[in-house]
Design goal:
Number of strands: 29
Structural class: alpha+beta
Oligomer: single chain
Distance between the termini: 152 Å
Helix content: 25-40%
Strand content: 25-35%
Length: about 475
C-alpha cells in the first residue's frame, strides 16, 4: 500500500495588526523628526561680521564684505605716543580690511558641529574683521614718526675725578610689529587711539662693563697746551667742556666710538661758548671753537696707545698745539674722529686739565701694549697770498691784521708699532694742509698803502667787501 504525503503548507500570512503598528510608529517618528528639525532651524545661531548681520547668499556676502571693508577703511585712527601723533583714516595709515581672510573666517564659523550649534542656539555669532597692512604706506608713516619717539641710550661712564660710577640709561626705538598689532587691535575694536609701541635700546656700555676696568694702569697719554686770555678765553672754556663730556668714556673690546657721539652737539646749553673757529680758510667766531684740540689730543693718545684710528681728518691748516699729522679736526654732524679698541679688554678715556692751560688725555685699563714711534716728512705745496677785506663796521681809517698767513704742505706720517707680544706693524698716512691767506681788515677811508709790504712768496692780493664782489660762500666750521 502506497502512502501519499501532501506538500508543506505555505508560510502564514503577516499579521496585519503588526504591520499597521510599525507603519504608525514610523510615521510618528517622522513627525517628531520634522518638528525637531523645524525647532533646530529656528534655534540655530545667527551670524554677523563686525556687528552687521550677514546677508543670505554667498555671492551677496562677498559683495557685502567688500563694501563693508571700504567703509571701515575710512575709520579715523590716532596713532602716537611720546609726544608724536598722527591722525588719519586707516587706509592712509596703511591698514585695510582683508576681504578674503574675513570671508574665510566667516565660512569657518558657520561650519559648527551639532553640539556647538545647539550650545549657541538663538544667539548671534559675530566674526571680527581681518586686516592686512599696505607695507609702503605703513612704512612711510613709521618713517615720519620714528625719529620723534627715538631716545638714544646713555652709556655708563666713570667719573674719575670723584671716583664714582654713572649707570647707563636705556633708550627706546619704534617697534614696527608691535605698533602694527596695536593698530589692528584698535581698528578691530573700533577704538580711535592706538599707541606707538617701542622696544628698549641697550646702551653700548653698561654698569657691569665698568667693573672689569683697572683704572690704575695707564696705556698711553698725551698733552697739549692752550692760552686762557684774549681769544683763548672762549677756546679754553670749550676745551674744558669737551674734556668733561669725553672723560670716563669706555671703549669695549672690539668696539668703535665716535668723538662727535660722545662729546655731543656744541651748544650753549651743553656748556660750550663762543670762540674762534676755522670757517673755510679764515677764523670766525662760532660756538665750540677749541673742541678740535681735545680731539687732536685724543688722537695722539690713541696713536701712542696702539688703538685703531678708523676715521681721522686733518685740519685745513697746520695746528700750533701739536705736530703735523697728529691733529684731528671735528665738526658735529659732518667731520668725525672714530677710534676702535683692538684689544680683548676695555679701555677708559680719561680727559682732564692738570693745569688751567693744559689738556691731558690718558687711556686707562692696562699696561702699555706697544712701543710706538712717530715721525713725519713734509713738503711745501703752495705759497699763501694776501686777502684784503673791507669792513664797513671797522673804525674809520683803521687797519688790522685778522689772520697770519702760512703756506700749504703735504705731510706724510710714519707710525711704527712694536707690540709686547712680538708683533710689529708700520703705517703711513697723509695729511694735506692748504695755504692760509694773510688777512687784513680795512676800515672806511683807510688806504691799502698803510698795510705792511707783503712777505716773501706772497705773489698776489685778493680783495673782498667791495660793492662789486660776490658774497662769500659759507662752509662748515671746524674748531
Amino acid at each position: 500500500m502506497h502512502r501519499v504525503t501532501s506538500p508543506l503548507p505555505p508560510p502564514p500570512a503577516p499579521r496585519s495588526r503588526g504591520v499597521w503598528r510599525a507603519l504608525t510608529a514610523l510615521v510618528g517618528l517622522s513627525a517628531v523628526l520634522a518638528s525637531a528639525g523645524a525647532l533646530w532651524l529656528h534655534a540655530a545661531p545667527r551670524f554677523s561680521v563686525d556687528g552687521h548681520p550677514v546677508p543670505g547668499s554667498g555671492k551677496d556676502v562677498a559683495a557685502w564684505l567688500t563694501a563693508l571693508g571700504a567703509q571701515r577703511a575710512e575709520q579715523p585712527l590716532a596713532l602716537g605716543g611720546g609726544g608724536a601723533w598722527r591722525g588719519a583714516p586707516l587706509r592712509q595709515l596703511g591698514l585695510q580690511v582683508d576681504v578674503r581672510a574675513t570671508a574665510a573666517a566667516l565660512e569657518e564659523a558657520q561650519h559648527l558641529g551639532l553640539r556647538q550649534r545647539w550650545a549657541l542656539r538663538n544667539q548671534t555669532v559675530d566674526v571680527a574683521l581681518r586686516f592686512r597692512v599696505q607695507n609702503a604706506i605703513f612704512s612711510a608713516t613709521l618713517t615720519d614718526l620714528a625719529p620723534q619717539v627715538r631716545q638714544e641710550p646713555v652709556p655708563a661712564r666713570l667719573d674719575l675725578e670723584h671716583h664714582t660710577r654713572i649707570d647707563d640709561v636705556p633708550g627706546a626705538e619704534l617697534d614696527r610689529d608691535a605698533t602694527l598689532a596695536a593698530m589692528v587691535d584698535a581698528a578691530t575694536h573700533h577704538r580711535v587711539l592706538a599707541p606707538l609701541a617701542t622696544r628698549e635700546l641697550r646702551a653700548t656700555i653698561t654698569a657691569s662693563d665698568l667693573a672689569a676696568v683697572d683704572v690704575s694702569k695707564v696705556m698711553s697719554a698725551y698733552e697739549t697746551t692752550f692760552a686762557t686770555w684774549g681769544t683763548g678765553y672762549g677756546r679754553s672754556a670749550n676745551i674744558r667742556a669737551a674734556a668733561r663730556w669725553l672723560d670716563g668714556t669706555l671703549i669695549a673690546p672690539g668696539a668703535t666710538i665716535s668723538f662727535n657721539d660722545v662729546v655731543g652737539a656744541r651748544t650753549l646749553k651743553r656748556g660750550f661758548t663762543f670762540a674762534p673757529e676755522i670757517v673755510g680758510d679764515e677764523l670766525e667766531t662760532g660756538i665750540g671753537g677749541g673742541t678740535c684740540q681735545v680731539a687732536s689730543t685724543l688722537h695722539a693718545a690713541v696713536l701712542y696707545g696702539a688703538l685703531d684710528v678708523v676715521e681721522r681728518h686733518a685740519h685745513g691748516r697746520a695746528s700750533s698745539y701739536t705736530q703735523m699729522g697728529m691733529d684731528a679736526t671735528v665738526a658735529y654732524g659732518s667731520v668725525d674722529l672714530r677710534i676702535r679698541n683692538p684689544f680683548d679688554f676695555p679701555v677708559v678715556v680719561h680727559a682732564y686739565l692738570p693745569k688751567p692751560t693744559q689738556i691731558r688725555v690718558e687711556l686707562l685699563g692696562a699696561e702699555p701694549q706697544a712701543t710706538v714711534g712717530y715721525v713725519y716728512s713734509s713738503r711745501k705745496t703752495a705759497d699763501f697770498f694776501r686777502r684784503v677785506t673791507y669792513k664797513p663796521t671797522l673804525a674809520a681809517g683803521t687797519t688790522t691784521r685778522h689772520q697770519k698767513g702760512s703756506p700749504g704742505f703735504m705731510v706724510y706720517s710714519y707710525v711704527t708699532t712694536k707690540f709686547t707680544d712680538g708683533r710689529a706693524t708700520k703705517r703711513i698716512y697723509a695729511s694735506e694742509y692748504h695755504p692760509v691767506p694773510e688777512v687784513y681788515w680795512v676800515g672806511p677811508g683807510a688806504s691799502e698803502s698803510a698795510l705792511p709790504e707783503p712777505g716773501e712768496g706772497v705773489l698776489r692780493t685778493e680783495r673782498r667787501g667791495l660793492p662789486e664782489d660776490p658774497p662769500k660762500e659759507p662752509t662748515g666750521p671746524a674748531s
